[in-house]
Write a structure and sequence with these properties.
- The protein is mainly α and about 160 residues long.
- About 50% of the residues lie in helices and about 10% in strands.
- It is built from seven helices and four strands, in the order αβββαβααααα.
- Strands 1-2 form a two-stranded antiparallel ribbon. The chain has a two-stranded antiparallel ribbon with strand order 3-4.
- Strand 1 and strand 2 form a beta hairpin.
Length: about 160
Amino acid sequence: MAKRKKCKSKDEWTITDWEKWLWPVFSQYIRLRDALITTGTIWKCACVTCGRVYRIGKQLQAGHFIPGRTRAVLFDERGVHGQCYRCNKHLQGAWPPYYKFMVKVYGQDVVEELINLYNQDMELTPEWFEQSYEYYSWAVDFMRENQQLVESNTPEKAMCNV
């Protein structure tokens, strides 16, 4: 008979455990945010790198501009955008069009800042993870409940394919 894994209490969690706990809600937030910006709906999103429109689901991921997902950039909203599975996985992030998009939307200074953060270590506390989880959960619920309100205030589709 296989042994059951003992569930750890949050007091025993490692940083990796905290990251795994926060990632699903953060990823959902990113995809909904970008769906509203690119298509004006929470159901479909344009890939930041190829521009194809996908339904929110397995074909659309939260793709990182900086590969490797180090702690300093893992949850930085500026460097994570809706990206299709093909661009994110098969094309390893489709870096050239992602780079063009980042410069167009955020400017070269932010791009350089994110690149510099790649090698920096960042101390994340359980309190930070809990506050972030609370915020992103609230934001996801808000976007779902207030889609029409958000849609009417959505800026021009700046995130469409560069």
